[in-house]
Specification:
The chain has 258 residues and is mainly alpha-helical. 66% of the residues lie in helices and 0% in strands.
Length: 258
């Protein structure tokens, strides 16, 4: 932990580190869990948790969000809980304004989605959804039930839009009817599958492409079993090459982040 966050050594043990450790142990329940958490988020010890984490947790609990859900957020989205308390209140108010239901288990994700964007980014995101064909009512409904879709970058939304139309087989209504299709990887799921289907159609090995709903929901094993395995000599190499390339890009991307 110190090797990742050496500046912790400059923090006051009595005024910052020990109080933070005490708060974290109270929340996480054991020294082992605190150590596990700090291996990933050691910078929590550099922050005055009494002025950020504690008031934010208390406020979110008052909004009806269970404590265990907030602790889950600590592990997966730790910076979210270190917002200024006044900003957290604004994010909740914005989520309320957009129609998020506080009694829904998705409410906390609605708040986090709002917190991840400034106003300009939010407006560009809304325009991207409108351009796909979502109505204003549809956008509000989507935010209520699938708020995490609003964390998807505008760039990815536009890229899938172009990619889908380029096939000549699907139109934008496919995304409107299947909005969670936006969560699937273009490089790892859509590109390899579209290429296989194009080759099979060109060689008259299939008459029709599957529905978009079936295509994006199909597991990799099922797709291989149905479209690749029976025609491996024709499409196997192309399919595997695309999958390997997508995996390499993913590894390279993670390496750059490290």
């Amino acid at each position: 932990m110190i090797s990742k966050e050496p500046s912790i050594l400059h923090s006051s043990a009595d005024k910052r580190v020990i109080p933070s450790l005490s708060i974290l142990k109270g929340l996480l329940g054991s020294t082992a869990e605190v150590a596990k958490f700090l291996r990933v988020s050691g910078w929590y010890l550099k922050t005055d948790l009494d002025k950020t984490l504690v008031p934010n947790m208390n406020f979110l609990i008052s909004c009806g969000i269970p404590t265990e859900k907030i602790i889950w957020l600590m592990y997966y989205f730790p910076r979210f809980l270190l917002q200024k308390p006044e900003n957290m209140e604004k994010f909740v108010a914005r989520a309320d304004q957009l129609g998020a239901n506080r009694s829904s288990k998705m409410f906390v994700h609605s708040v986090r989605a709002v917190s991840s964007m400034n106003n300009d980014t939010w407006e560009h995101k809304l325009k991207a959804f409108r351009d796909l064909g979502f109505s204003e009512e549809g956008i509000v409904r989507l935010f209520r039930v699938e708020p995490l879709l609003f964390c998807i970058s505008e760039e990815k939304i536009r890229k899938l839009e172009r990619f889908l139309l380029a096939t000549g087989k699907y139109d934008l209504s496919c995304i409107v009817k299947n909005p969670t299709s936006l969560t699937r990887s273009i490089e790892k799921r859509y590109e390899p599958r579209f290429q296989v289907l194009e080759i099979l159609e060109r060689k008259n090995l299939i008459k029709n492409w599957p529905s978009f709903s079936a295509l994006y929901k199909m597991t990799d094993n099922k797709f291989f079993e149905k479209f690749v395995g029976p025609h491996y000599n024709e499409v196997g190499e192309a399919y595997m090459k695309k999958c390997v390339l997508a995996r390499k890009k993913e590894v390279d991307s993670v390496a750059r982040l490290d």
